[in-house]
Design a protein that fits this description.
The protein is α/β, with parallel strands linked by helices. Helix content is 41%, strand content 13%. Strands 2-8-7-6-5-3-4 form a seven-stranded mixed sheet, with helices on both faces. The longest helix is centred in the last third of the chain and has 28 residues. The two termini are 39 Å apart. It binds pyridoxal-5'-phosphate. Pyridoxal-5'-phosphate binds next to helix 4.
């Protein structure tokens, strides 16, 4: 007899992350001796930069790893503020910088602080899937707005205006975006902010892939207005996913509200990670990170050159991040099945479009260039074999 499981109904609207199933299956195949080319994982494959590890090791040896203030140590908040000054000539006061447990923690704090039950949040489809689930957890409802290659998978003021719904509290954007790597041009961001602020809503811009842009000048949305809420993290450019440290820029009133929630939910962001992150901005660390960025650029070039010859269609080269969102409709009718079969037959792991929304999801897959070029080449060779074998059409 099935036992009673007193789970909350809010779980009903939380969908699983299919890529985790792909990853789990890939690990099983590896444990059975198969070689897998991993292009599914959205995190840099490099180790944490040495100066950052050294800073953590020194702090660990010293031993005082206690709680910090709920929105982080002032020394790191100051360092982040200086980063914005040096990089974007932006004056950000300490009271507007908060640290969090990854960008994920920042998203939770801010949405918890902003949303009333039933408030609507607009975001793009495709987009980063966790956002809609966090909104749901805090009682909000999401409107996913379909965007395709014609707007480079990004929202514009025009698209938002057409899809505006009453009760909209916030608009969430990411630039560069996951899964497409597309940047929202500065002027387009200005127009979006104009619309969102006129409607009395809050604009949240996730800049977690900032720094990983190729041949394009990136900017910070806070240059447009200090009222724009900015999310960032040590996970991607800084290559520190497992340290679980992110940050956000927000007007003082919102930061104070997020701080109150952080005091209750997390107490503090990870302390050791905060000490380590102080070294993330050092020149020697940045040199390492810039070399890695060049490597990502080469990997993206390689994949963007080769994938079209296999039948995948790309909406140009990505502006940033380390992903390629490829249209595979000429190769298959169901991208989830395509990913599963590709893994089983050829040992290549990629992510199905369904993980990023529902619009044209069956026709898209995401390649993460988070493995060496030799592995990417091997992956391409195996995909070619897979397509030639006809197994994908079976
Ligand atoms: C767009 C976007 N935002 C936020 C996150 C969460 O990042 P973090 O590791 O900082 O929690 C990710 C992770 O992949 C992401 O792609």
């Amino acid at each position: 007899m099935e036992s009673h499981r007193p789970l909350s109904s809010r779980l009903d609207s939380i969908s699983p992350f299919h890529v985790m199933d792909i990853l789990a299956r890939a690990k099983t195949l590896e444990s059975e001796g198969r070689h897998i080319v991993h292009m599914e994982v959205g995190e840099p494959d490099f180790p944490t930069p040495e100066p950052v590890r050294k800073a953590a090791a020194d702090k660990l040896a010293e031993g005082h790893i206690h709680y910090t203030p709920a929105v982080g140590m002032n020394s790191l908040r100051e360092r982040i503020s200086r980063y914005y000054k040096d990089r974007f000539s932006l004056e950000i006061s300490l009271d507007c910088v908060g640290l969090s447990t990854g960008a994920s923690g920042a998203l939770q704090l801010l949405l918890a602080a902003l949303l009333e039950p039933g408030d609507r949040v607009l975001m793009s489809d495709p987009g980063y899937p966790c956002n809609r689930h966090i909104v749901t957890l805090f009682g909000g409802s999401t409107s996913l707005i379909a965007v395709g290659a014609e707007s480079r998978f990004q929202l514009t003021a025009e698209i938002l205006a057409k899809n505006w719904r009453s009760g909209t509290k916030a608009v969430m954007l990411a630039s560069p975006a996951n899964p497409t790597g597309a940047i929202i041009p500065y002027q387009s961001m200005q127009e979006i902010y104009q619309l969102v602020s006129t409607q009395g809503a809050v604009l949240i811009v996730d800049e977690i892939y900032q720094g990983l842009t190729y041949g394009i000048e990136d900017y910070c949305a806070a240059e447009i207005s200090p009222d724009i809420v900015v999310i960032n993290s040590f996970s991607k450019y800084f290559g520190m996913t497992g340290w679980r440290l992110g940050w956000f820029l927000a007007p003082e009133w919102l930061l104070a509200a997020a701080e109150k929630i952080a005091q209750n939910l997390f107490l503090a962001p990870p302390t050791l990670a905060q000490y380590a992150a102080l070294s993330a901005f050092h020149t020697e660390t940045i040199e390492i990170l810039e070399a890695r960025k060049n490597e990502f650029a080469q990997r993206l070039d390689l994949m963007a050159t080769e994938l079209p010859s296999l039948g995948f269609e790309l909406a140009g080269k990505p502006d940033g991040a380390f992903y390629l969102y490829a249209d595979c409709h000429r190769l298959c009718g169901n991208s989830l099945q395509f990913c599963q079969q590709l893994l089983e037959h050829e040992g290549v792991a990629i992510t199905p479009g369904i993980d990023f929304g529902s619009y044209q999801a069956d026709a898209f897959v995401r390649f993460a260039c988070t493995t060496e070029q030799s592995q990417l080449r091997l992956g391409l060779k195996r995909i070619k074999q897979f397509l030639a074998s006809g197994a994908h059409a079976a």
